[in-house]
Amino acid sequence: MPMTIVERIKKISAVLMKPLLKNSRFFIVMFCIGLLSVMVVHRGMRHISVFELFFETYLLTALVSCFPRWLSNITKGVCYVLAYVLGIVDMFVFYRLDFPLGPAFLRLCLQTNKQEASEAIQSYVTWDSIMSPVLLFLVILALHLLSYRINIKEFRIPHKLNNVILLCLAPLLLFSGALSLKNEWFIVRNMLAYDGDDMERQAQLPYDGGFYLPIYRFLYASKAMNIDELKIRRLIDNSSRVKVGRCAYTVPNIVLIVGESYNRHHSSLYGYPLKTTPLQEELAKKDELIAFTNVISPANNTSQSFHLAFSLYATGCEGQWESYPLLLQLFKQSGYNVTFITNQYVNDIKAVIWDYNGSRFMNTPELSERQFSHRNTKKHPYDMGLLEDYDSLKRFETDHNLTVFHTYGLHFMYDVRYPKDQRRFYPRHYKRPDLSEFDVDNLSHYDNAVLYNDKVLAEIVKRFADRDAVVIFMPDHGEMVYDNCDQYARNLNPKTRNEITQQFDIPFWIWCSPMFKEQHEELFEKIKKARDLPFMTDNLDQLLVFLGGISTEYYRPEDNPLSEKYDKKRKRIIMDGIDYDKIIKQP
Hints:
By secondary structure, this protein is α/β, with parallel strands linked by helices. Helices cover 52% and strands 8% of the residues.
């Protein structure tokens, strides 16, 4: 008589049950430890991560069941130690510092001496810490140890419960595996990433659960730290050999403002219908602000954009970016007072991979000292707080100054990038029936953030209005913000013209003070003449070196838009291989 579907499922489940019956204690303990981390520490999609945890714990249990007893016992012991130690450390760090394991935290631990470690333990290991969710790990451990005392020889399941399990196990494993597939691929791709920039690109791809367990966070952080260390060592070695020639100090006060995630097509300075940049437009009407119309970023992630903009390397140069001098070091060695004021790249052990990867070349002590004369030490809820930092550091200025502001700009999430009492745009200002209520509201938040950013930029400009100065505004990259689509944030594997223009078209302008215009008439005319030239910000360094009048063998006049030798036909290759100008010609 043929078997029914239910009977077939029960038969398959009976086979699948064997590893669980053989190693029931191991499965239950490992699942409980993982579940605690998922529910307390993990900030991703927990409902998916629970199924993924079930699926992975079963696979691990099945694997252990295939080993000889001696190897099985050793493997289980190692798994227990790793799960408890990493789980407790991860939970403890999350409870005390409000972030899970990451590369910057690991580096801090490695750089801590015995005295610092002892003081940290005394400071952080308190009764409150022990009575936090960390206590739940200790409860699991206590029950785990108690289970050995009970010494149950055979795991018996009631008959009715056994039938339910046999009916559900196979479908549950199949469902859990299917639900976990995308995130499993995400983890594999990240673990196989070949360098820091690639790790950042992979880490921002869409996923469901991410590194949802402490072991994944630890392995990923270790890899990021090791890969990055090789580049940093190379940078330190190369920076010790950097030489500069004479410096003309052509412009005595140069200010660079680096924005964040700024889609040019949402700036009314560039024709956006909502008045998001009224103050910049006022400066343009005075013929002080020169808006460049054809500027793009070489990448749509901050780290790679920073590596290219702040080194003398550019796309197409031989070798790697870390083999070239750092831009800000050239300025400091040339005699400029270099001030770095950032709302992202302060030394921060909470740094996630994209901040960690992008900031190491600025935050490593040796490199920081070689690049900066002064810098701020704390972040602010809003970018206007950076003006307070500048005002406090202004007393250190000399006759020649390069000041770099690095804002949080328009980084997702948009609704926290501006004070709520300064909101001016609401969903009623948009006619987008193709978008959901959330998306229209999100779109309005982005435009409000652009408007707030306009005020920040204007305040920075005011600080230099009575000096011989130029202020350059350059975002690190653009952002997808529902332009002819229903998507926002970034797609790190862009293919269409619309995806590329939103993420790579950036506003770029040079503000020239009245004193600068008077004392540098010819240079001011060159700036105005260059406003419509095609330019990519991997050559920002060439523009700044020219404005500073710095003599260096790494200066390339063909890459400086203010030079008569500028190569207007240079291919603008983005994302390590996409010809931007070829894509932009597509319909």
